[in-house]
Amino acid sequence: MQKTGAIQATAPTSDQQVINSSPPPSITTEAKILPTVETPPAVAETKVLPEDSLSETRKSSLDVLTVTKGLLAELSSRTRKRKSPNPEVLQKQKQTLEEFFNMPLEAIQQANAYGNIEGIIHSLIQNSNDLREKTTLEILLARVAEFRESIPMAMAIKETAEARIISLLGKATVLDARLEEREKKLSFLVTEFSRLSKEEENLEAEIQFLITQKAEILAHKKHVLADMEKTNDETSEDVEE
């Protein structure tokens, strides 16, 4: 029993372990009281340009501004030149447009010149200051667009009609050859009919002549017969005497 008590006296309790593992109160308090040290912000250094550098900067700025103004003036001049139409160019465009309109539709379609025509009309509209002329050109542009859409269909119809005509011409050629043969045959038949009709007329005339001749022969025969009977009678009388 005493040994057990001695062992219990030497074994540390759980409360004692907690106390021994905790730091001393003085250390904990000091750790909490220590202030946080902040790093001061870096101060940017300001460079002071010398007078020569400032003068050169002003000069370069003035040079750039002068060059910029010169370029703006040049661009403005070129823009005005572009906006102001050249009368010779406009006249040339009108002549070209007139030449296009004098071309047959087939030639315009084959050359695919609708884009060129529309481009010229657009240019004339943009450069025209006459409201009536602009309206006329816009109407013309709409008509060209209509033609551009309708002409291919019309050309297809025309090609179909031409193919049909070629087919009919081929059939007509065959028919003409057949009719020519029929004509030759009919001509031969007409000639033959005329020949036979002539022969018939000749035979009819001969028949009429023969009938007349027959009638004359029969009349003469009858007369001869009567004369022969009379002669017989006279001869019989003479014989009886």
From TrEMBL:
The UniProt record lists the keyword Coiled coil: yes
Keyword Coiled coil: yes
Coiled coil stretches, renumbered: 186-213
Highest taxon of the lineage: Eukaryota
Keywords annotated in UniProt: Coiled coil
Name of the protein described by the UniProt record: Uncharacterized protein
Compositionally biased intervals (Polar residues): 1-21
Region Disordered: start-end pairs: 1-39
